[in-house]
Amino acid sequence: MRIILGVGGGIAAYKSAELARLLMDRGHAVQAVMTTASQEFLRPLTFAALTGRKVLTDLFAIESAIEHISVAQEHDLLVVAPATADLLAKLAHGIADDFLTTLYLAFTGPVVLAPAMNVNMWQHPATQANLETLERRGHLTVGPAEGYLACGMTGAGRLASPEEISERIELAIENRRDLEEETVLVTAGPTQEPLDPVRFISNRSSGRMGYALAEVAAARGARVILISGPVHLPQPRGVELIAVRTASEMHDKVFENLGPATIVIKSAAVADFHLSKVPEQKVKKTAARVSLELDPTPDILAELGRKKGDRLLIGFAAETQNLIQEARRKLESKNCDMVVANLVGTADTGFESEQNEVVLVTRTGETLPFSRAPKREIAGRIFDEIMKLRLAIHAADGR
Ligand code: C5P
């Protein structure tokens, strides 16, 4: 997520340096914008060093007269911390007299405000009325906390902690409904290929990554069809669940439900081989050695690659070596738009784990590594990239 951090002129400005670091740690890109007053408390250099980006300050000292517009368009979320009484008033009334306030008017994404000021200023009806206006506009606020204030008084007015602000930002991100136009078909879990009426071949997939994708897509407004192999997970809310067992059942359900899908994500660990003629009776134990002759299962992803039309197709690649090369080979050979690759066989990521560490390779030639994070967070990032990819493909096709 690309976040603009607006820093207002308050004593708590130093805490927003900590917030910048926390947001970077969570994998977000941060663009700091400082008001003139805030530079009395903290130097732009602090944020430049922390974020690795030039800090934006003065409306008239920047390279282009319309930079506030492009910065607004290139970012996904605006957080203002600390939001002083003066800033709240300007934002509430649309006064645009510096870079931050001008940028605010040009920005269409979610806004999070973290007020900090003296308790009397906070309680003043003018400030409270401004806050009400901003909340009615749909902006999220966090804090202020109660406690000892720099002015020597105690009461409400302290900037919320960087952790709380960061949590509120994650909530604002989750509240996004950018997938409302999409129907997402997700496959998840392992498949089971019977050897006889009681035995089967399967794999260690838990289904967690696919379920996280289904949950996130539903939360962001998509219609979600989840085709799942046998797993031990609760049905995600707001998702149409179709349970299957074998690769061939999964194949049939995928193509039965492909019609309305606009995005297809194949996160299931589908068996590659099965026994085509399953004995009707349980195979008896004998002293003799048995061998299994297995046939390949239908390659659902490859068939989807041929039939996908305008749909975005995302494959998964679980590899034990040469991760990126394998992912790119799969992307090409199966005509995918993106492949999510992860190394399996390591201790704490991949199969069965709550966490994952992945690399996305895209049709537009990008290779994006995502460091270890909960599967839900990884799922969110995958959808962020899918939506960017959709824009890039449309732009390239001139549609
Ligand atoms: O080639 P490989 O099986 O490693 O590719 C993995 C990807 O292919 C996953 O996205 C998986 O869901 C899909 N797959 C499939 N049908 C199969 C086997 C794998 O769709 N029979």
CATH class of the largest domain: Alpha Beta
Number of strands: 19
Across the major sheet, the strand order is 12-11-8-13-16-17-18-19
> In percent, how much strand structure appears in the residues?
15-25%
Number of H- or I-type helical stretches: 13
Average pLDDT across residues? Answer: 91
Biggest sheet record: 8 strands, mixed
| Distinct ligands | cytidine-5'-monophosphate
Provide a descriptive summary of the structure in words:
This protein is of the alpha/beta class and 399 residues long. The protein has an 8-stranded mixed sheet with strand order 12-11-8-13-16-17-18-19, with helices on both faces. A 5-stranded parallel sheet has the order 2-1-3-4-5, with helices on both faces. Strands 6-7 form a two-stranded antiparallel sheet. α1 (13-25) runs parallel beside α2 (44-51), α1 packs across α8 (162-174) and α3 crosses α5 (99-106). The longest helix has 23 residues, at 375-397. The protein has 2 domains: 2-174, Rossmann fold; 183-277 and 289-397, Rossmann fold (3-Layer(aba) Sandwich), CATH 3.40.50. It is 35% helix and 23% strand. The radius of gyration is 26 Å and the shape is elongated. Bound molecules: cytidine-5'-monophosphate. The site of cytidine-5'-monophosphate (C5P) has 14 residues, from α11 and β16.
Write the layout of secondary structure elements.
Layout: E1 2-7, H1 13-25, E2 29-34, H2 44-51, H3 67-74, E3 77-83, H4 85-93, H5 99-106, E4 111-115, H6 119-123, H7 125-136, E5 140-141, E6 145-148, E7 154-158, H8 162-174, E8 183-188, E9 193-194, E10 200-201, H9 208-219, E11 223-228, E12 240-243, H10 247-256, E13 263-266, E14 273-274, E15 295-296, H11 300-307, E16 312-319, H12 323-333, E17 338-343, E18 355-362, E19 367-374, H13 375-397
Parallel strand pairs: 1-2, 1-3, 3-4, 4-5, 8-11, 8-13, 11-12, 13-16, 16-17
Antiparallel strand pairs: 6-7, 9-10, 14-15, 17-18, 18-19
Helix pairs in contact: 1-2, 1-8, 3-5, 4-7, 9-13
The structure holds cytidine-5'-monophosphate.
Cytidine-5'-monophosphate binds at residues 187, 247, 266, 268, 270, 272, 297, 299-301, 315-317, 330.
